[in-house]
Design goal:
The chain has 173 residues and is an alpha+beta fold. The chain has four helices and ten strands.
Length: 173
């Protein structure tokens, strides 16, 4: 399957009060080779769905994502050879016509939370007004700040944001 991915990414100032009532799944992401490029090969588990994903493009607002469904057994074999990996809980939270994806990271990144909003076209992406609980937009440097995401701790992530004069605070559900 091939999709054009148009998204904006934000930190979260505070979690919505009713987030726990939202549908959510556990996601595992493993990277191969050069995970920090916009063009990347990834292994993903989303609940009971397993995928091999190739992302290609020039920016977050203009990227093609190729997805191949795989079996759990294939995932388990490939997981062992990922160069880095991380886990998060993704909450699907509606805002008007949009369904936001709130990612709450676990493990070394426990307490790190961000939100993505996907759009059908660039015009809608540019017109989107974020709600009050959204924090700083990180779309333009999302890939840079997430360099080696599967290897860093929350404290290291906090330092990365401080270099950009952005405060990062731990959150928990």
């Amino acid at each position: 399957m091939k999709n054009l991915e148009i998204e904006r990414v934000f930190l979260v100032k505070e979690l919505p009060k009713d987030i726990e009532q939202s549908r959510h799944i556990i996601i595992k992401v493993g990277d191969f080779f050069e995970p920090n490029t916009i063009d990347a090969l990834k292994l993903k588990q989303k609940g009971d769905t397993y995928e091999l994903v190739k992302k290609e493009g020039h920016s977050t607002l203009n990227r093609t994502e190729h997805t191949i469904k795989i079996k759990k057994k294939e995932f388990d074999i490939l997981w062992k050879v990922t160069t880095q990996n991380h886990e998060k809980i993704r909450y699907y939270f509606p805002i008007g016509e949009h369904l936001c994806e709130i990612d709450c990271y676990k493990g070394r990144l426990d307490g790190y939370v961000r939100v993505e909003v996907e759009f059908s076209n660039k015009k809608k992406a540019h017109e989107f007004i974020s709600p009050q609980w959204f924090g700083t937009e990180i779309s333009d440097f999302n890939h840079d700040i997430h360099e080696d995401l599967g290897l860093v701790s929350f404290e290291e992530m906090k330092q990365r944001y401080l270099k950009r004069k952005i405060s990062l605070h731990k959150m928990s559900i």
